[in-house]
Automatic annotation (TrEMBL):
Family: Belongs to the glycosyl hydrolase 31 family.
GO MF annotation, one: carbohydrate binding
GO BP: carbohydrate metabolic process
Protein name: Glycosyl hydrolase
Organism: Polaribacter aquimarinus
Cited PANTHER family: ALPHA-GLUCOSIDASE (PTHR22762), HETEROGLYCAN GLUCOSIDASE 1 (PTHR22762:SF120)
Name of a matching Pfam family: Glyco_hydro_31_3rd
Domain Glycosyl hydrolase family 31 C-terminal: 590-675
Length: 801
């Protein structure tokens, strides 16, 4: 007879002293007396992986987050020991593992300065309800330490003093500080004493992060199950930390087609066909550039995925072709919920092949979404992803749709308290069967992955374009993203600014907000200010719900329409600059948007700045985020910067007032920059142009800029058919030199550069191109001086007597 029904609460458990150590090439194993094992792997000189087991055994080593293409290998590895520590030394790091407690401390190998140190370090709590462990890690928060990253959290850029939860959630009309929302990216970057490191906690269970909130000198992270498995990534430059994390979790597999970087228009919903055509015709009539039009769920037959409502769209193939002839790519939405309907081929096939998620005891996972009651494919199963990718053949190959937008893939379920699947739903998890507690945060990622492979297959030889709402670390390999269902308020404009910066710091640069706000109706002033910010986000799309009125650029009156046109034209002029930044992102894992702390971490004033950011390498942007503003105070980073509108040169390293009427916003160009610009087009590929501009901003000294180009679609660039032009600027008091070096086999259609010279401090008395003197008649004098030269020049030399 059982008389004691009280559960013994053991509380936190800790490793005891190390009793065994062994080394296997790049991996070290430390075993404690109470059978805890630390598996320490030197991934790179600056990247160390820490993986803990409380049972002496490790599960199958599998990760959706870490890419197989991640860089590996180190230059130096030495393991020594003293009385109290095992000491692992690489060329970048010294890692000490304490013999008595398994606690870890990490130091800069060059100067011996402490970078990161366990507080009580790894500990765990047995989970009576689910089995296994709640795994925990606590670190000492160093003096003046600041924290950044963690994906789309709607808070200021610096996370110090805050606590967060990672559980991807459909958060309609979320607000500032709402947590969790749509993405789970368990990676943060830290900086103290001008040294930066990052931690990627690769655990897909519900995770939590506390950045010195509960205790001001302790930062901690923990998960509701799985392993304590994290990567320590050292800089000491923050940009290197972000680049190494992005390399670890994956860069985009391909450049986007250039049209995907244009302006996109979306609404819930454009239908019937006549409405779609009316919207696209108005863009062309008003000469507002636009490359893509989106169809939300109403294009489907009863919200059944991969179908068309023939009442609204009687001949989708014809319509898509006519839109494309007018320069519009068609992007359609696809959700994960498959309507329960035996007459519906997609449902019947998935049912027959047993591709739907099931509850623990066998019944299918049933949930209400837009079509009504639905079953949901298990995208963590390879066969299901392969089947799903095949479903896109008709949409892409036959009808001609150019992009797919994955929504509701958290997964979102209506009319249930947790807005998603119950914990007991089972998933294949690529052969590592598990419950929804483990698979929830990667469900949307795996749907996006399957969608990407479908589009890659059926768009070939063109490049795929996919958007996802839900994401886990590594999703940037496959898709772009947006920040979910925001609201038409000034607060949300500021939130969108912070989210885009934070996503770029979290390895996911191809991101943007619903410009103007999804819920509620913006005033014209707010819409104009949001457009001004949105054209500097990598993904640039207006989107709104259909229940509050129209949100096209022309519905707010002529003044706002003109402002929108002006800024969208700037977006299109800067496309070669953005395309170059994207190439740099793919090749060097460089974030396209840089918070000021990422741009100049040595300047302490940047550590708490949230509004300003650097776009690419040379453009400083600061949105106006409040109504009735005629300008704002902003922080200008160190160095000299040109006002984009006036060419006034300002000295940075300080805060200053910048005028910005409604038709303007604070934009500055770093001195020495060479900014490539296209002529204005109504859509990518509309015009064949003979020349492009190079806006050159004089600097006394040296600066380097780049211009990447290729066919703007397809994969020939991977075979060397690209063009990478490096411009080296040298400015002196009475002399100016612009040198060009070109790599790659691609030859763009344009023949000339119009070199526009900003703030040249001397009068030009002679000009040489490739050591040949040319007539001063070639200098055009307007507001600024310019000269048109052959694009294959190697050196432009300007002199003053």
């Amino acid at each position: 007879m059982i008389v004691n029904t009280e559960l013994e609460q053991k509380g936190n458990l800790f490793p005891s002293e190390i009793i065994n150590y062994k080394k296997d090439v790049d991996t070290l194993f430390f075993t404690t007396k109470n059978n805890v094992v630390l598996q320490l792997t030197v991934v790179r000189d600056s990247v160390i992986r820490f993986r803990y087991s409380t049972t002496g055994k490790f599960d199958n080593d599998f990760s959706y987050g870490v890419t197989i293409h991640a860089s590996r290998g180190y230059n130096f590895l030495e393991v020594t020991e003293d009385k109290t520590n095992y000491i692992i030394t690489t060329s970048k790091l010294i890692c000490k593992v304490e013999k008595a407690s398994l606690q870890v401390s990490l130091y800069d190998a060059k100067d011996g300065i402490l970078i990161n140190q366990d507080e009580i370090g790894f500990h765990w709590e047995e989970s009576y309800e689910y089995g296994g462990d709640i795994v925990k890690m606590s670190k000492i928060s160093q003096k003046a330490e600041s924290y950044y990253g963690l994906g789309d959290k709607p808070v200021d850029v610096n996370l110090k003093g805050k606590r967060f939860e990672n559980w991807v959630t459909d958060s309609y009309a979320f607000g500032k500080d709402t947590d969790p929302i749509y993405k789970a990216i368990p990676f943060y970057t830290s900086i103290h004493h001008n040294k930066s490191y990052g931690i990627f906690f690769d655990n897909t269970f519900k995770t939590h992060f506390d950045f010195a909130q509960e205790r001001r000198n302790v930062t901690s992270f923990w998960a509701q199950g799985g392993e304590m498995n994290y990567y320590f990534i050292y800089g000491p430059k923050m940009e290197d930390v972000v680049a190494n994390y992005t390399d670890l979790t994956g860069k985009p597999h391909a450049l986007p087609p250039l049209w995907a970087l244009g302006f996109h228009q979306c609404k819930w919903s454009y239908y019937p066909e006549s409405n779609v055509k009316e919207v696209t015709k108005t863009f062309r009539d008003l000469q507002i550039p636009c490359d893509a039009i989106y169809l939300d769920i109403d294009y489907m037959d009863g919200f059944r995925c991969f179908t068309w409502d023939k009442n609204y769209f009687p001949d989708p193939k014809r319509m898509v072709k006519e839109l494309e002839d007018d320069g519009f790519k068609t992007v359609v939405i696809i959700d994960p919920g498959i309507k329960i309907d035996l007459e519906y081929d997609v449902f019947k096939e998935a049912l027959d092949k047993d591709y739907f998620c099931k509850r623990a005891d066998g019944p299918y996972m049933k949930g209400k979404v837009w079509p009504g009651e639905c079953y949901f494919p298990d995208f963590t199963k390879p066969e299901v992803r392969e089947w799903w990718s095949g479903l896109f053949q008709e949409l892409i190959e036959d009808i001609g749709v150019k992009g797919v937008w994955n929504d509701m893939n958290e997964p979102a379920v209506m009319d249930v308290p947790n807005k998603s699947f119950p914990d007991d739903v089972r998933h294949d998890y690529d052969g590592n069967r598990c419950s929804h507690r483990k698979a929830h945060n990667v469900y949307g990622m795996q749907m996006a992955r399957a969608t990407y492979h479908g589009l890659k297959k059926y768009s070939y030889p063109k490049r795929p374009f996919v958007i996802t709402r839900a994401a886990y670390s590594g999703t940037q390999r496959y898709t772009s993203t947006w920040f979910g269902d925001n609201v038409a308020t000034w607060e949300h404009l500021a939130i969108a600014n912070n989210q885009a910066q934070r996503m770029a710091m979290s390895g996911f640069s191809f991101a943007g907000s619903d410009i103007g706000g999804f819920a509620e109706q913006p005033q014209g002033e707010l819409f104009a200010r949001w457009i001004q910010l949105g054209i500097f986000h990598v993904f640039c799309r207006v989107h709104s719900s259909g229940d509050h009125g129209d949100q096209e650029p022309w519905v707010f009156g002529d003044e706002i329409t003109d402002i929108v046109r002006k800024f969208v034209e700037i977006r299109y002029q800067l496309l070669p600059y953005l395309y170059t930044a994207f190439w740099n992102h793919i090749n060097n894992a460089t974030p396209i948007l840089k918070s000021l702390v990422l741009f100049d971490q040595e300047d302490q004033h940047t550590h708490y700045r949230s509004d300003e950011f650097v776009y690419g390498e040379h453009i400083l942007v600061c949105p106006i985020q409040e109504p009735n503003a005629k300008g704002r105070r902003m922080y200008i980073p160190r160095g000299k910067w040109y006002n984009f509108w006036t060419d006034e040169v300002v000295e940075g390293g300080k805060e200053m007032w910048v005028d910005a009427e409604l038709d303007s916003m604070p934009i500055f160009i770093k001195e020495g920059a060479v900014i490539p610009k296209y002529p204005v087009q109504q859509y990518v590929g509309e015009k064949d142009f003979d020349e492009i501009s190079l806006d050159v901003y004089y600097k006394e000294g040296k600066e380097k800029s780049q211009l990447y180009d290729d066919a703007h679609d397809g994969y020939d660039y991977k075979k060397g058919r690209y063009s990478l032009r490096t411009f080296k600027l040298t400015g002196k008091k009475n002399e100016f030199i612009l040198q060009q070096h070109k790599q790659g086999k691609f030859d763009a259609a344009y023949k000339k550069f119009n070199v526009v010279l900003h703030n040249l401090p001397f009068t030009i008395t002679s000009v040489q191109v490739d050591n040949v003197e040319i007539s001063l008649d070639n200098i055009q004098n307007g507001g600024t001086q310019s000269i048109t030269i052959d694009k294959e020049f190697t050196e432009l030399h300007l002199f003053s007597k």
